[in-house]
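Mods, move this if it's the wrong board.
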Amino acid sequence: MNIKPICDRIKQLRLGLMIHSYIYYKLGKSIISDQKWDARARELVKLQNQYPSLAKKGRFAKVFADFDGSTGFHIAGALDKKGIMKAYYLLHIYNAKEK
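Not the wrong board. Structure tokens:
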């Protein structure tokens, strides 16, 4: 079984959820719907439950160790500098489109 696509998707979902949680909880904006965030959170929880050995590896594995998808509050504060820069960039793009 090729696990790379699964690892890549877990990584993508984690980073995306953290960035959008940062934008929401730290910057006071929301650029994706609650439904979209919830769907991504459910997908991540499902993947982490299906592949626990993969979920214990990679960037932000400890942050998501007990993640159940119910909130992004605790993951927003764990975003690193690179992720924070991405959050500001996405918010800038979103704000430019809103004008």
